Amino acid sequence: MINLKNKKISYVCGILPSKKIQSIDNPNFDEKTKNKIIRLSGIKERYILDRNKNENMLSLYKQAGEHVVKRQNWNKDEIKGIIVVSQNHEYRFPSTAVLLQEELGLSKDCFAYDIVMGCSGYVYGIFAAMSHLNEESDKILLFVGDPINDFIYPKNQSVAFLFSDAASCTALEYCHGFNVQFLFETDGSGRNAIIVPHGGSASLINCESFQEYQDSDGNTNIKTCMEMKGLEVFNFTFKNVPNMILKILEKNQLDIKDINKFFLHQANHYALLQIKDKLKISDECFPINITKYANTSCTSIAILLAEEKKYHQNNIIMAGFGVGLSIGVALFNKLEFESELLFAN
């Protein structure tokens, strides 16, 4: 367990793209199949980047970042660093964080770098940003987002109805009395449970990358899009996430009832309900919004926080989990922040 002291989340801005699509409009499945998937997932609509309007992640990050800086009334020259967490950055190089330094007009003295992380990315991003905070480096912007639908094959029944693109900006500050404990689990043996097989240096794009194939579950896919072994991911989530939460509570001599809110990655509605029931968490302590915004990948915890508007409570859990396979759990002794959920303009 890693303890970080005097680190605070001050403001969270989540942002969704302007284009909303209806799950029922997917032309690749019959009405019966679509209605069944919608009924089981609870996801009737999703948000995707509107490429016809030149909408991209950088434009979402910029809108969210400008909103946060304005609401915090920060002097841009005082912002010491930018971190961007995503599975899919704007370019292979340079980093998206470097682009944001110019887009936001921040000082050239600030540090800026990207992290490649998926479903547990928000917790990892908070950890990374807070690791830099001190009396001298006291203001940092964390951007977390993913254009996940760029890597979803619309004929793949297991994922075609699940995801929304989204982004976020979180303001973090050095502040006495705000302490966080982090617990991580990494299992690289599960790398193939959620994977885009082609496009990285291990398997370069070739003429076979765009040929349709049937995965082990019978779903139609191509090698440049996400392949997910749903049962394997669910089993990992259902077993390991509750255990990690209980472990961090035990180390702090706390019980489930001592936690005011559990902000979990919005992976799958059924999986979330199973975790809630397994840990015997009350509805009011366990916010769920996947049926409103779908699975927004590494951004989903930030979207949950963005809906809070104004929050001040003690003993809060955040947990991200998925691709890797990986889990990140954070226990905050207190959270005090304002937030806003925006839509791209």
From TrEMBL:
<comment type="similarity">
    <text>Belongs to the thiolase-like superfamily. FabH family.</text>
</comment>
<dbReference type="Pfam" id="PF08541">
    <property type="entry name" value="ACP_syn_III_C"/>
</dbReference>
<keyword id="KW-0808">Transferase</keyword>
<feature type="domain" description="Beta-ketoacyl-[acyl-carrier-protein] synthase III N-terminal">
    <location>
        <begin position="113"/>
        <end position="176"/>
    </location>
</feature>
<dbReference type="GO" id="GO:0006633">
    <property type="term" value="P:fatty acid biosynthetic process"/>
</dbReference>
<keyword id="KW-0275">Fatty acid biosynthesis</keyword>
<dbReference type="InterPro" id="IPR016039">
    <property type="entry name" value="Thiolase-like"/>
</dbReference>
<feature type="domain" description="Beta-ketoacyl-[acyl-carrier-protein] synthase III C-terminal">
    <location>
        <begin position="249"/>
        <end position="333"/>
    </location>
</feature>
<dbReference type="GO" id="GO:0004315">
    <property type="term" value="F:3-oxoacyl-[acyl-carrier-protein] synthase activity"/>
</dbReference>
<dbReference type="Pfam" id="PF08545">
    <property type="entry name" value="ACP_syn_III"/>
</dbReference>
<keyword id="KW-0444">Lipid biosynthesis</keyword>
<keyword id="KW-0276">Fatty acid metabolism</keyword>
<dbReference type="InterPro" id="IPR013747">
    <property type="entry name" value="ACP_syn_III_C"/>
</dbReference>
<keyword id="KW-0443">Lipid metabolism</keyword>
<protein>
    <submittedName>
        <fullName>Ketoacyl-ACP synthase III</fullName>
    </submittedName>
</protein>
<comment type="pathway">
    <text>Lipid metabolism.</text>
</comment>
<dbReference type="InterPro" id="IPR013751">
    <property type="entry name" value="ACP_syn_III_N"/>
</dbReference>
